[in-house]
Structure formats: C-alpha cells, structure tokens
Design goal:
Elements lengths: L1 H13 L4 H5 L1 H28 L4 H25 L6 H25 L9 H18 L15 H25 L19 H17 L4 H4 L1 H25 L10 H12 L6 H31 L10 H32 L1
Helix pairs in contact: 1-3, 1-4, 3-4, 3-6, 4-5, 4-10, 5-7, 5-10, 8-10, 8-11, 10-12, 11-12
C-alpha cells in the first residue's frame, strides 16, 4: 500500500499537477498510516519468527533488503508532504545523503561483522516522518513555509540543517569505526577484502546523478525532480542490497552492477549532445532500473527457496522435504535390522 501511495504521488508530480497533493490532507494522512504500518510490521516479523521458532539470518537478509528499497521511496513521499520541491538543490542533497547513510551503515556491518544501532537511526527517522506527516495532515504542507523567528529560514530548511548536523556526527562515527579495521584476516572485512573498497560502488551510485544534473542542457532534475530521484534511488538501493547480501554470505562486492546501465545511458546521451530527449531517456532508465531490481530480488528469493527447500511467504517446508524427512528414519531402521541379522548369521555360523 505504501509503494502504491508513493507511485500515486509520483505520477501526480510527473503530470505537473502537484497543487492537489500539497493541499490535500488525505495525502499526508495516507503517508502517516502507511509509514506506521511499515514500521509496526517491520518490528512484528521478528516477534513472529521467535514465536514460531523460525529465527534465522534470512530474517535479517529480507528485512534489510526491503529497507534498502524503502529508503529510495520513503524520502520522496516525505519531501512531497512538506513541499520540499521549492528547494530542489537541498532536496537533492538530503535525498542522496540518506542513501549514503544507509549504505555506510551496512558498510560498517560488512567491516566489523556486527550490526550496531546508533542513538539516531531508522526508527527515529520514521517517527519524525510520522510526526511531520501528522502536522501536514492537520495544518497543510504550507505550514513548513513559515519562517523561523530566530534564523529567518523556512521550517523545511531548518529541518534540512538539523539533518545535516545529525548526518555529520553519524559520518564521523562511521569513519572512526571503519578506520579501526575489520574482523577479518589482517583487519579486512568479513569476506577478507579491503575495508575501503565498498566506497567505490557508492561513489559510482552517487556520481551518476551529480553528473547528469550538472551537465543536463534542459535542467532535467528541475524539470522532473521526483522521477529523477527515484531513478537514481533505485541504483543506490540495488547497490545497498548487494552489500547486504555480501555481508550475509561473506563474499566480495563488485564495482559495477547491471542496474547502473540505465544511469550510464543518461551520461552517454549527454556526452553525444543528447541525440535523444533527456526526459525520454530518464523514463527508459527508470523502467530499466525498476525491472532490473525486481528481477534481481525475485531471483534471490527463488535461489534461496530452492537451495534451502523452504517457502518464501510461508512457514514450513515443501511436501517433498517432509516426505524425505519421514522416510529417513524408516530407511535407517531397515539398515540397522539388516546389519543385526547379518551379525546373528555370522555368530551362528561360528558356533
């Protein structure tokens, strides 16, 4: 429901009919309900796993993989309800800083082998989003355009400054942890690779949108800001998912990923003086990225289900596994009886 809501808002912005979404309290109310449901269900799945005795590392894998996808959509909905499109450059910076924070948090986990929770994390960010959405649903998004009496800045700009301060301290903390070395051999990562190499995929994922936004002759980002953010947000989400899987499987990560072809297409189009309309290429890149990440996630789920012989959306195992489990003790008991009979025959022959 939350994904449908986000897409609904994006379609409104794509059609340039954004006044309704800013003024309608229903938009902010749906945002609050969906984020609250997302946070609640995200916490309940762990309780359900402990209650049913199905706790495993798969829970962390699916949980953080879904969080990576939500991280590229939730900030866009948040920007919509506070009307942050009036400050497109600040919105650009805050959006990709959120993507970087999520990636760096799992980078630290990839290095240390331990998932650490900071004082200000995802839960606190979601609660702030719920609070801001509630205020917007009551007073409208125009309330965030009120200027602060002390600084003379709009409230939406003040929240950006607060976010920047929090991000600075978190970045310093992450850098300090990573600089101390990893848990692997000779201070490497859990996969015995360089602790600094994960910065390379992050640099590519964040470098593409900067290049496209700066070199666009038609100001592509200002023309379609939310479609632009979603297109490159999918790239960041896919890179983060690959990092999560690399940590869980203790394997190396790679510099380039197939999802980056869509972003590279925009750069190549600009390099050749835009033979194709940039808006068209942007939609092609968005479609390619969405299809790529969906197929990748589906492929991961199918491979896990086949290899572990489990269901993805149900507790229990397929009937073939149950059948094999039932036959296993029967087969072993038959072998034991045969072995005992052979021993008796040998003893009787000796006597």
């Amino acid at each position: 429901m939350y994904l449908l809501y986000a897409c609904f808002c994006l379609m409104g912005y794509a059609n340039v009919s954004i006044t309704f979404f800013k003024a309608c309290f229903f938009t902010s109310l749906v945002f609050v309900v969906c984020v609250f449901a997302y946070q609640t269900l995200d916490a309940l799945d762990g309780l359900q796993a402990r209650r049913t005795g199905s706790c495993s590392q798969l829970g962390e894998l699916f949980d953080h993989g879904c969080d990576a996808l939500s991280t590229c959509i939730l900030p866009i909905s948040y920007f919509i309800i506070i009307g942050f499109d009036d400050w497109p450059m600040l919105m650009f910076i805050q959006y990709f800083c959120i993507q970087a924070l999520f990636y760096v948090a799992h980078w630290r986990c990839y290095v240390t082998g331990v998932l650490a929770f900071d004082r200000v994390g995802v839960t606190e960010g979601l609660l702030i989003g719920i609070l801001f959405g509630t205020i917007s649903s009551i007073f409208g998004s125009s309330i965030w355009s009120i200027k602060d009496p002390l600084l003379g800045l709009e409230l939406k700009v003040v929240q950006f400054l607060v976010f920047s301060v929090v991000m600075f301290f978190l970045a310093v903390q992450f850098a300090d942890t990573i600089s101390q070395g990893g848990c692997g051999k000779y201070g490497t990562t859990v996969a015995n690779t360089s602790v600094l190499f994960p910065v390379c995929p992050l640099t590519l994922a964040l470098g593409f949108p900067v290049l496209v936004a700066i070199n666009s002759p038609v100001n592509l980002y200002h023309q379609s800001p939310f479609i632009f953010l979603l297109t490159f947000g999918i790239v960041s989400a896919k890179v983060s998912q690959r990092l999560v899987i690399a940590h869980m499987t203790k394997s190396a990560i790679y510099l380039f990923d197939a999802v980056m072809f869509g972003a590279a297409l925009l750069v190549i189009n600009q390099y050749f003086s835009c033979p194709l309309p940039e808006v068209l290429v942007l939609w092609i890149s968005l479609t390619f990225g969405a299809v790529n990440i969906i197929l990748y996630d589906a492929d991961v789920c199918i491979q896990l289900a086949d290899f572990l012989n489990i269901y993805v959306f149900r507790i229990g195992r397929p009937s073939s596994m149950r059948h094999n489990n039932k036959n296993t003790p029967v087969k072993s008991s038959v072998q034991d009886n045969t072995y005992k009979n052979s021993l008796r025959t040998r003893n009787s022959s000796r006597n």
